[in-house]
């Protein structure tokens, strides 16, 4: 009886290790992490980022000046609420040209972030933040999505929630200003 229990334990451990190894191989991507030049080669149609945040641009170059009000949407490629929210953020950017609106991809896998934007058809300029520097600098909660409103580089508001429409985001930003 003891031998049967021992064999069962060994089989369970072996199967568990195989499942973990298989899951890891599915989750780990061979794409570069945090190398904006390599990401630009993979996804050449990503837009340039406006100046204003000290992070690498996820795709294009950093060009142009930011406006007085900047709305920053912090997201990650694996986040389902972010996936739903990004098109609304892009619509908000399109309907509110008076603001600089950008995304910050808060994950080490820049390639997956750029791929998600492409899959969604979202052309929102986005920065890559593999180390969480922006969130730390702004004192953000450890969740995504989170939206930050900056005036002249100073934080005005933080919204740790998913916005379901451009109108909802516009109301929140206008209420904060």
From TrEMBL:
<dbReference type="InterPro" id="IPR000866">
    <property type="entry name" value="AhpC/TSA"/>
</dbReference>
<dbReference type="InterPro" id="IPR036249">
    <property type="entry name" value="Thioredoxin-like_sf"/>
</dbReference>
<dbReference type="GO" id="GO:0016209">
    <property type="term" value="F:antioxidant activity"/>
</dbReference>
<protein>
    <submittedName>
        <fullName>TlpA family protein disulfide reductase</fullName>
    </submittedName>
</protein>
<feature type="domain" description="Thioredoxin">
    <location>
        <begin position="17"/>
        <end position="177"/>
    </location>
</feature>
<dbReference type="Pfam" id="PF00578">
    <property type="entry name" value="AhpC-TSA"/>
</dbReference>
<dbReference type="GO" id="GO:0016491">
    <property type="term" value="F:oxidoreductase activity"/>
</dbReference>
<dbReference type="InterPro" id="IPR013766">
    <property type="entry name" value="Thioredoxin_domain"/>
</dbReference>
